[in-house]
Write a structure and sequence with these properties.
Distance between the termini of chain B: 42 Å
Shape of chain B: globular
Strand content of chain A: under 5%
Radius of gyration of chain B: 23 Å
CATH superfamily of the domain at 16-100 and 129-406 in chain B: Sodium/glucose cotransporter
Helix content of chain A: over 70%
Number of domains of chain A: 2
Distance between the termini of chain A: 65 Å
Order of helices and strands of chain A: HHHHH
Shape of chain A: elongated
Oligomer: heterodimer
Structural class of chain A: mainly alpha
Structural class of chain B: mainly alpha
Largest interface: A-B, 42 and 42 residues
CATH architecture of the domain at 16-100 and 129-406 in chain B: Up-down Bundle
Largest sheet of chain A: none
Strand content of chain B: under 5%
Number of strands of chain A: 0
Chain lengths: 108, 529
């Protein structure tokens, strides 16, 4: 009992041992993965920042082009009328334009 | 987190007009909620608002469920620390995703007659995947309700001086009254009013804070002149190797492609509103309306954080940015409105999770159990009564558990972390399950397990593998692709699913084949999941 009280405030030898082993294991697993990812990181680091802006805006542009390929029947399905303002392709383009402007303005 | 809300002020710092505004807001919510309870006559009315919601209500309610009181505080705190890049989470983190949800996933869910994501996964893969997903979501949503009730008690304690038990009980009764009686319709319509309150309150704070900081140009120059501010503070795209949690590669590929899509097509609370729309067109349009509103969210949440950086460059806790601005800048009347906005954000999250919890519990667990024991599908009257009782029971349980969650927030953080492990892998098996006939039950199960395991391992390895200290964006990207690869390989190595099992579950059939449509209608009629 007295021994237990004396040592209760400090980590037990086994606990320290396990923590060290776990950390060793973590580093051992991380090393090869880091080696795999490092060349990719170096390449991405070397890219100019306009590439980032192009990728972000490209995501919106690709989404917009894809929406434009959707058929008229599909986007109007369930709509009571086929008036122009209910064309969800136009809604999507109207949605994307301000996002493209924001990423153009604040993208780099 | 409640400490930050407490620091906004106390009951003594609020004028009579502030308290009048808060009381008027609470009474208004109740009246709207009770009004819509007249329309609930069946389980379908309760879960999906009788499929009668207009597109604008769907869109606004999606944003209300998405933005919680915690986001109002932590979003501005993160903007204070990291700058404009934080806005990516609402901009590129929502818009390509809402279009994918609107034009691929929603039409599919709509026509397949699916109530929940676990339900689809169970039909397409196997019961194991369904149960795993359902249990994780149920645990997360229940703890979330408890945490929100605790936060509401802190707000009410601060504003009105009520003790935490009384404040929790009052909040539970207020939210419970319209959620139990009105179901999804009441939840969505009160969400609409709550968003109006949030936008007016937070909008007033934006104007006052930028005005006090000397306008946008002067404010940005003040921040850029501060020692320690990087030139990237006012850009959305931050270099890949920069010391930030938000490098552009993670933002575009991790957030823009994987995490945001997983959120908008896999989150039950989001999905349920769209499925309650009055037509497929309204469901799609609702998603696009949510995209329009998300454009404004960063202005409301992050501009105050940036203004606080100019006005108070040495805040010890960045999360206290908004509370400090409210305390120092907002006059009587507007301060009450801001408290109402906090409370609106809390209530809109609590009611959404209550309704979704009941839907998942009954659709994915109880109805299966009942069918096995009773030998017949769950009746509509039975399901409606049970839904109301379950909502009330969950609310009572969450209220009793709230003080525990308040003391041990690590429980919530742990559950949120576990749920995040499932996001990328779930998106991968959802995509393959819908678009690829050859995906098998074993493929889905192996893919999910391997993807979750990889996510856990990469999160553990963290900064030793990736350039960022908090590499969650990279982790989600790789876990998505790993799950996709494992599911494809295992599916090709296992026996294909029989055509009769896939009937009405693969994209082309669900959207175009009239025979499959008839089968789905029959399945919905008989309750055969």
């Amino acid at each position: 009992m007295a021994d237990a009280l004396e040592t209760s405030g400090e980590p037990q030898l086994n606990e320290v041992d396990w923590a060290d082993r776990l950390e060793d294991l973590r580093l051992a697993i991380a090393a090869p993965l880091r080696a795999l990812h490092a060349p990719l990181d170096q390449w991405l680091d070397s890219l100019p920042m306009w590439v980032a802006q192009v990728c972000a805006i490209g995501l919106f542009v690709v989404a917009g082009l894809w929406v434009l390929t959707l058929s008229r029947d599909f986007v109007y399905l369930g709509s009571p009328t086929k008036s122009r303002w209910r064309d969800l392709r136009l809604w999507s383009i109207a949605l994307l334009l301000p996002y493209i402007a924001v990423y153009w303005w604040l993208g780099r | 987190m409640p400490d930050e809300i407490v620091s906004v002020g106390s009951a003594s710092s609020l004028a009579v007009i502030d308290i009048a505004i808060i009381v008027a807001y609470i009474v208004g919510m109740q009246l709207v909620g009770i009004f819509y309870s007249r329309y609930v006559h069946s389980a379908g009315d309760f879960f999906l608002a009788g499929k009668a919601l207009p597109f604008w209500a769907v869109g606004v309610s999606i944003v209300a469920s998405d933005i919680g009181a915690i986001d109002l505080i932590t979003g501005s705190g993160a903007a204070y620390r990291h700058g404009v890049a934080q806005a990516n989470f609402d901009w590129i983190g929502s818009v390509p995703a809402v279009l994918l949800a609107a034009f691929i996933f929603l039409p599919y869910y709509w026509r397949a007659g699916v109530y929940t994501i676990p339900e689809f996964l169970g039909r397409r893969y196997n019961a194991g995947v369904q149960w795993l997903q359902a249990v994780i979501w149920l645990a997360f949503m229940a703890v979330n309700v408890s945490l929100m009730l605790w936060m509401a008690s802190v707000v009410l304690n601060t504003v009105l001086g009520w003790s935490p038990p009384v404040a929790i009980a009052v909040t539970a009764v207020l939210v419970g009254l319209y959620t139990v009686t009105g179901g999804l319709a009441a939840v969505v319509m009160t969400d609409v009013l709550q968003v109006v309150v949030m936008f007016v309150g937070a909008g007033a704070l934006v104007v006052l804070s930028v005005w006090d900081a000397g306008g946008w140009s002067r404010m940005s120059q003040t921040i850029l002149d501060q020692p320690g501010t990087t030139p990237d503070y006012f850009t959305l795209m931050v270099p890949h190797g920069a010391q930030t949690p938000y490098p552009w590669t993670g933002i575009v590929f991790g957030l823009g492609i994987v995490m945001s899509t997983a959120y908008f097509v896999g989150n039950q609370a989001i999905l349920q509103r769209a499925l309650g729309a009055r037509s497929e067109w309204d469901a799609k349009a609702g998603m696009i309306v949510a995209g329009f509103l998300k454009l404004l969210i960063p202005m409301l949440m992050f501009v105050p954080g940036i203004a606080a950086r100019a006005l108070y460059p040495d805040l010890a806790k960045p999360d206290s940015a908004v509370p400090t601005l409210v305390r120092d800048l907002m006059p009587a009347g507007l301060r009450g409105l801001m408290f109402a906005a906090f409370f609106a954000a809390l209530m809109s999250s609590v009611d959404s999770y209550l309704n979704s919890w009941t839907t998942v519990f009954i659709s994915d667990l109880y109805s299966k159990f009942y069918r096995r024991v009773a030998g017949q599908p769950l009746g509509d009257y039975h399901a409606l009564g049970l839904s109301r009782w379950l909502t009330a029971l969950l609310l009572v349980g969450a209220a009793l558990f709230a003080p525990v969650i308040g003391r041990f927030e690590t429980i919530y953080v742990a559950l949120q972390t576990i749920l995040s492990f499932f996001q990328g892998p779930t998106l991968a098996i959802l995509l393959l399950g819908i678009l690829w006939r050859r995906a098998t039950g074993w493929g889905g199960l192996f893919g999910l397990v391997c993807g979750v395991f990889l996510t856990m391992m990469l999160s553990w390895l963290g900064g030793d593998v990736f350039p960022s200290e908090r590499p969650f964006l990279f982790v989600s990207f790789w876990s998505f692709w790993c799950t996709l690869a494992v599911t494809v390989v295992v599916s090709l190595l296992t026996k294909p699913e029989p055509p009769e099992k896939l009937r009405g579950l693969v994209y082309g059939e669900v959207l175009r084949d009239p025979t499959a449509q008839a089968l789905l209608a029959e399945r919905m009629r008989t309750g055969d999941g």
